[in-house]
From TrEMBL, chain B:
Domain Daunorubicin resistance ATP-binding protein DrrA1/2-like C-terminal per the UniProt entry, residue ranges: 139-222
Chain ranges of the ABC transporter domain: 1-85
Pfam families, alphabetized: ABC_tran (PF00005), DrrA1-3_C (PF13732)
GO molecular function annotations of the record: ATP binding; ATP hydrolysis activity
Organism, scientific name: Apilactobacillus kunkeei DSM 12361 = ATCC 700308
Spans through the membrane: none
Record's keyword annotation contains Coiled coil: no
Key words, A-Z: ATP-binding, Nucleotide-binding, Transport
Superkingdom of the organism of origin: Bacteria
InterPro entries xrefs: ABC_transporter-like_ATP-bd, ABC_Transporter_VariousFunc, DrrA1/2-like_C, P-loop_NTPase
Protein name: Abc superfamily atp binding cassette transporter, abc protein
Amino acid sequence: MHKFNIVFMRNYLLHLKSKSFIALLITPIISVLISAGIGVLVAGSTNNFDNYQVAIVGDSSVKSELVSKDKDSIDTSIKSESTAKKELKKDNIDGYIKVSKENNQYKVNFVGSSSLDSDVKTDLLAIVNQKQSEINVKNSNVTNEQYKQLSVKPAFKSSITDKEKKQKTEQTSSANTASIYVLMFISYFFTIIYASIMSTTIAKEKGTKISEVIFSSVSPSTYFSGKVGAVIALMATQMVIYTGVGVVAYFILNMDPFFNSLFTSQHVLISTFVGNIFSINILFIFIGFVISIVLAAICGSLSANVEGASKSAQPLVFLILFIFVLSFNFVNNGSSDSIFSQVGSYIPLFSSFLMPIRLINHNANLFEGIISLLIAIFFIAFVTYKFSNVYKLFMLNSEEGSFFKRIKSALNNK
Amino acid sequence: MGYLPEERSLFEDLTIENQITYFAELKGRDKNWVKERINSWLQRFEVKGETKDKIKSLSKGNQQKVQLICTLIHEPKLVILDEPFSGLDPVNADLLKKEIIRTKENGAAIIFSSHDMNNVEELCDHVVMLRNGNVVLNGSVDEIRNQFGKKHVFVTTDMSVNELAALDGVSEVVDRGHNRYKITLSDEEYGKALFKAVSRGEYIEEFSQQPPTLDEIFREKAVANHA
């Protein structure tokens, strides 16, 4: 265990401090920040458009009521029509409303560079209608009883329960779809990246005498486990950092009123999405990574020589690409519960893509998920145990023939 | 155990300190124990570089020295050196010889392979020669040399090559210049007669009857292999 720790820590720290890992870690964060920055700029320009300002001059009672309702859209510093005209000419306001009363009739005149904002217009007309009604009642000499009769309005009932339910269902469905795609893309990219890191790390020692020196100090199985463990820990570190950054970003953004209202309105979508990600599905993703890393280590050890390190993971990369495209098709064709998908969701590595899709779409239950997960874990244990026993043979073999010839040659040296 | 392969086997991205510490830790030494000794080893081997320098920044000769330090610093009881002198200039080869002898004096058993028989003769107590995986020579340096008889005579004399070649038992005469000759006898028993013939009962500057060197034995065995 002591030597495992030495190999593990040395490799983990070496990867962690490497420029390539730091670049791998911060590149997605920078991409997200750039995207968010563009979003803020776009939102800013939209806000400028939304920053609608008009002045209101004339009847003070109408003005005070409108200001109380739409204070964000009313420039209260403008008191007269002449000032309003000047400000409009300077393009400091979008228009002005002049409210006057002649012969017991309210007259509203809007002058502006664009039409009056619909919200302001609705509020203004409501206020003016109310005031006009009061004048009309007063002038028509009707009694209070008559006035009440005239004021009777048709009953209107609005039931939004179904809509909310429908909206909730739509949000859940959107969250499920989004989480399937996010899980698939995370699986694909992380698997490809870490498989390449693992195979290259192993293959770099292939053909050199480093392996001979190492194996004179530590058993091949311990060394192999330490190296694989270091890359798994590296990947886990990246996932934990991203989760931490995500949580911190959520709480920071939640302090902003805009994002707070956005998070509140999209609560169902967000909670469903997060629930889909941080569930048994994340275990499938993680197990998929581990399988890929172990298989990549095998590919690396079967590299013909150190020069072939960069392409040593190619067989695995092609396999992952195939599974990714297959899963993508299952999702796009709505056939995530086809017989192929069902069978595939129990085959290690395939299951890391297919079972989360089936679980999110409720094509499989938690029990089936756990069975699939156990099969994958058993597969990892079996492959790691078997391979760590022949790791030395593969690493010390210098056969330069085809991929299968190298396997045969290594095993013949047993 | 300490093992030095013929080819370089270092992690080029590690610093000198990390490289030496890593291998020594794998050999069971504590990190601090190793760190306390690194500088003295670097000085002893005259490595040109700081402990924080990366392996890839060192010259090939210095990399070889770092590798030797990795092999010996943990004070192994068994050391295997595969062609340890390859790539080393005479000065650095002497440094290595000194360390090999020091390690031997500290009680370690050292196995080293070499094609340079001068180094073998100088350092080894026991020699094994393998040909096609089979042992063809096995014993101490003296035992092996003596197996081949004391057929070589190094002599300084006024006699000519032809005169020497005409003597009984002389199979070959090599002129080494300045009246110095190397004579090969068909049997070591002819040595006494040769001494009498060359000295004629008077003072003689040089007369040394020796078995063949390991180098000559190696050549002889290697030629036999090729034949």
